[in-house]
């Protein structure tokens, strides 16, 4: 039996045991499924849907081609990707996982990126959103708005460093476009007009396709969130996750960190939210160590997000391996930056805060908490309404195709 056969056998056995656990622990599975579904419907779906639809329309109307020409002199020397990668980078930073992968795949299918450029781009355009870092983690879990500044700076700084390092990945591969060192407005307008002329779909169809494509992707994301919520719960109730945490405990002992971080750190490998919450709950642990572990968790992204990205990349020739390697690099760089920037961005902020007075701090807290409360109150309503709209769009599209 060769290595490939052994691997496939191991995967088959793992899924068999997973199915057995679904039957053996029905109550825990149901609770985990509800928890994952609530997270998706309350927060993930309503927060990502506007970005996804807007991005699809920007691509359809040629705005991305316009920006691609303008950003070429910046993106090519720094990251060795075409200018349209700047749009993907911006969407990934603002909307969070897995926007970067979704739009990288979109541009690759349109032949705006080569395979190598797409692999470079997807490696640094997937990141946590500011809402999640500053709102959910800093304010929601740690009750410390100042920590959000540190985590965000380290997360996005490490993400940028990953992009710069990945520019050397297969650097001799031929580029998709000729390098342009000058910004040309006329060339950008020409690219926009050319893109609009090539897409002959009417406005209504473009809107419908943007909605249906975005919701289809979010349904896939929801499935992975529920799946990994159930997987984590099974690992927890069976006690297997405590066995797995022995390896992180060994690494932490070598780093002279508190070994109480081992279980939360391992949990973060599976799901970012769970791992970060468990880290914040630790009482007798140095704050710097907790911040470094959370920084790694955010950079690594968790297997749940990585599975979402792998699913998106499966429709193309973009390999998952460079993205997976970049996630380890992102996590390690975020830990390092957290250690370096701890004093200037957190300790000094605590001693001489940029936002002084209880009113300013209270405003920062209530601001993020207000956004979170809005999603909790109206998120599910937005999700259900969007799903109804999705059904109407799909029905209309199928009816049009049938009549033709």
Automatic annotation (TrEMBL):
* Alphabetical keyword list: Membrane, Transmembrane, Transmembrane helix
Q: What residues does the Nucleoside transporter/FeoB GTPase Gate domain cover?
A: 43-136, 218-314
Any Pfam family from its record, for instance, is: Gate
Q: Does the keyword DNA repair apply?
A: no
- Write out the transmembrane intervals: 48-71, 78-101, 121-142, 149-169, 215-235, 247-270, 290-313, 320-342, 374-394
Source domain of life is Bacteria
Entry's NCBIfam families? spore_ylbJ (TIGR02871)
What's this protein's name? Sporulation integral membrane protein YlbJ
Q: Which organism is it from?
A: Alteribacillus persepolensis
Q: Organism classification, top ranks?
A: Bacteria, Bacillati, Bacillota, Bacilli, Bacillales
């Amino acid at each position: 039996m060769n290595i490939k056969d052994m691997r496939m056998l191991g995967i088959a056995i793992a899924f068999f045991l997973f199915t057995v656990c679904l039957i053996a622990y029905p109550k825990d599975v149901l609770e985990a499924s509800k928890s994952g579904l609530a997270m998706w419907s309350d927060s993930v779906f309503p927060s990502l849907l506007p970005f996804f639809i807007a991005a699809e329309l920007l691509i359809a109307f040629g705005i991305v081609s316009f920006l691609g020409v303008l950003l070429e002199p910046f993106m090519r020397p720094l990251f060795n990707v075409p200018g349209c990668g700047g749009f993907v980078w911006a969407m990934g930073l603002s909307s969070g996982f897995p926007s970067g992968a979704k739009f990288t795949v979109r541009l690759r299918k349109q032949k705006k990126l080569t395979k190598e450029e797409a692999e470079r781009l997807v490696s640094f355009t997937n990141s946590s959103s500011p809402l999640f870092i500053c709102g959910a983690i800093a304010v929601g879990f740690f009750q410390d708005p100042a920590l959000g500044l540190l985590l965000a700076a380290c997360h996005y700084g490490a993400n940028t460093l990953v992009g710069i390092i990945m520019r050397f990945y297969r650097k001799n591969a031929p580029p998709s476009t000729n390098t342009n060192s000058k910004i040309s407005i006329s060339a950008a307008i020409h690219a926009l007009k050319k893109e609009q002329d090539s897409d002959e779909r009417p406005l209504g169809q473009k809107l419908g396709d943007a909605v249906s494509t975005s919701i289809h992707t979010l349904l896939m994301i929801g499935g992975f969130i529920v799946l990994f919520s159930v997987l984590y719960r099974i690992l927890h109730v069976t006690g297997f996750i405590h066995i797995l945490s022995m390896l992180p405990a060994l690494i932490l002992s070598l780093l002279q960190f508190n070994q109480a971080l081992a279980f939360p750190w391992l949990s973060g490998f599976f799901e970012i939210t769970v791992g970060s919450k468990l880290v914040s709950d630790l009482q007798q642990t140095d704050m710097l160590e907790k911040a470094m572990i959370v920084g790694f968790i955010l950079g690594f992204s968790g297997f749940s997000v990585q599975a979402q990205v792998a699913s998106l990349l499966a429709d193309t020739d973009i390999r998952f391996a460079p993205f997976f390697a970049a996630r380890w690099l992102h996590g390690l760089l975020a830990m390092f930056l957290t250690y370096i920037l701890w004093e200037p961005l957190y300790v000094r902020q605590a001693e001489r805060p940029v936002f002084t007075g209880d009113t300013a701090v209270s405003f920062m807290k209530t601001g993020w908490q207000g956004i979170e409360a809005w999603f909790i109150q109206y998120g599910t309503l937005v999700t259900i309404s969007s799903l109804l709209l999705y059904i109407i769009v799909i029905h209309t599209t199928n009816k049009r195709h049938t009549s033709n």
